[in-house]
Amino acid sequence: MTPGGVAPVDLVVEDEIIVWVGPDCDASVGDMVVDLRGLYVLPGFIDMHTHLHLRVGPFSVADDFRTGTAAALAGGTTTVVEYVTPDPGETFTSALDRWRKASEGTHADFAFHVCIPRVTDEVLAELPGLIRQGITGFKVFLAYPDRLMLSAGDIERVMSVVGPAGGVVFVHAEDGVEVERLRAEAVSQGRKAPIEHARTRPAHTEVEAVRTVIGLVEKTRCPTVVVHISCGRTKELVAEAQLAGIPIFGETCPHYLWLTERHLLRPFPEAVHYVCSPPIRTATDALQLWDGLCDGTLQFVATDHCPFSSDARNSTDSFARVPNGISGIGTRFGLTYSGGLPTGRFGMEHLANVLSTYPAMICGLYPRKGVITPGADADLVVVNPFGHTDLGEEPLAGACDFNPWEGFKAPGRLMSVMGRGDWLWWNHDFGEAAGLRADPGRGRFIERRRLSPAILRHLQRKDLSWIFCP
Ligand code: URP
Ligand code: ZN
Ligand code: ZN
User: Are 309 and 269 a contacting pair, CB within 8 Å?
Assistant: First the structure.
């Protein structure tokens, strides 16, 4: 997969870097030559939304950087972007120290977004410094009034600082006040079943929040991503805003593309594993999200990997106290490939865009990551389009004792994965030393670049360099 599309080329890797891409390269004495004819080589995938070190109340996620990034590599993800979520009252410095320490066992490269749980003049003054340290993404919440919710005014203040400094705002868009009212009503009426999670977070709560976000982005012009988009109407709103030139982008996740609220009607101990926010919705929503992915309204498929164990999920008898999140750090390729390629919705180039190139661009990792070109890190994924993957396979699951993708047989198979010049993952049908080959701790913190006007234009599909201009 070259920047110009799929081409039958050779590529040369020296140490950690791609040094040459082109036809018919002669090997030098001592080179290791790998013949990948008949297979696709894509840029290493980037998961721009993970939770590998999160604690919510008494519960910690079941994965850590070591186990989570092992599963990520098995699924072709060579870089993760992890959300650093400060505890109430905790400084950014302290939260970042905790996450840096937690990342020590990582197998994959990683970068950070930082969540902003409250806005003060001091907090705003710190943001440009974080951007200079290579942390360019900031998440704000219109949801979770008990922990993280900000007012529209505070989000506007964040955008007014982050945009001009070259950063990007990531928004969790659910109307937290309305959701809280519906949840309180359900609890007072004794409604406890997991399906109530979806009923108390209806689509209109996401739609209204996205309307608010669009207004703020229109005013501030701060490049903004609506994360984990779950419903078709939201996608429509984002599409309209994009047509009006507003710099807003959309991320969705495999669970919104493949699961429906019927999963929340399963017996309680199982249904609780499908409790995430926003909730999984209807098949119609899922189909509309696939449309959005095809037509470019949604540019990113990320996992929002947030695995809580069966014990944590079943520590309560009410949906209202179940820790939220779905796991899937290893299964993103299989799920995106399955819905995209065999169905004819999109081809290999677009798959590489939504899993790698566009996330690299918005996260300031491009052109070091997300592209196969001389000078880029040698992060490569080898794909056999004729193979199949059982998404229940153990290496893809991570450490959580429940895999929501068990039983899914996906077309397409990853053969091997290279990270910065080393083969980190080797599949069983490709060589003798199958499995994970990376040592814990080999992954590196990657400093992110500011979002450049050229990349912003490219993501906005406003790059008019092709126009004939004599
Ligand atoms: O349910 C979810 N998505 N949990 C993870 C935290 C978040 O809001 O992304
Ligand atoms: Zn969120
Ligand atoms: Zn998340």
Answer: no
